[in-house]
Amino acid sequence: MSQRSPVFTQICIVVHDAEQASENWAKVLGVPQAPAELWTTEQLRHYTNGEYTEYSGCKVAKYELEHLVLELMQPSADPSPWRAFLDKHGQGVFHFCLFVNDRKTMYHNLNEIGAPLPYHIGYFAQGSYSYVDTKDQLGLELSINQLADNREWLDLLAQGKAQPLDEVK
Fold first, then answer.
1. Smallest Cα–Cα separation from 49: which of 73, 76, 75, 81?
2. Which of 5, 76, 118, 162 could form a disulfide linkage to 130, CB 3.0–4.6 angstroms apart?
3. Rounded to whole angstroms, how far apart are CA atoms 42 and 19?
4. In sequence order, what E strands does the chain have?
5. In what order do the strands lie in the sheet with 120-124?
6. Alpha-carbon distance 75 to 79, whole Å?
């Protein structure tokens, strides 16, 4: 059985005001406005630069388009990858999301072109996502997503018996 090719599934745009951006996108797309909701992270474990982090107060609006999701992310004032992007660059495209079957192989392929390992990774029961700074190599940041049963891995992380990215080393 052959593996399917990686698929772009999402574009994330960091904005100052998710409600206003959502209203504008709804008009442009000719669809009902997606609500800007507080992003819940209860079922996620986030690590930025290897450190466990919690993010609260972010608002997100999502448009499920035919071939991808348009995500509008309004970061809170607290430190986060999205806040750092907004403070440095202003509003704009934060990442393209690439869905893969094998994160380890993708990280190896990115390393082959000089990209570093992810600086941010989020684990949830059904998979993971990570942010890789590929601006120098590809002109944008990538979010690498993979579906997998991560329940045991989440327990190991919570107990301190594993570190982020151990599973791909």
1. 81
2. 118
3. 23
4. 7-14, 37-38, 45-48, 51-53, 59-64, 69-74, 92-99, 120-124, 127-132, 142-147
5. 37-38, 59-64, 69-74, 7-14, 92-99, 142-147, 127-132, 120-124, 45-48, 51-53
6. 9
Alpha carbon dihedral 46, 109, 82, 101, in 10-degree steps, equals -60
Domains recognised in the chain with CATH numbers:
7-163 (3.10.180.10)
Least Cα distance to 31 among 74, 61, 1 occurs for 61
Q: Enter the tokens of residue 10.
A: 């999402």
132 torsion bin: left (phi>0), alpha (psi -120 to 50), beta (else): beta
Q: Both tokens of residue 43?
A: 């079922």
Residue (of 129, 127, 167) closest to 151 by Cα position: 127
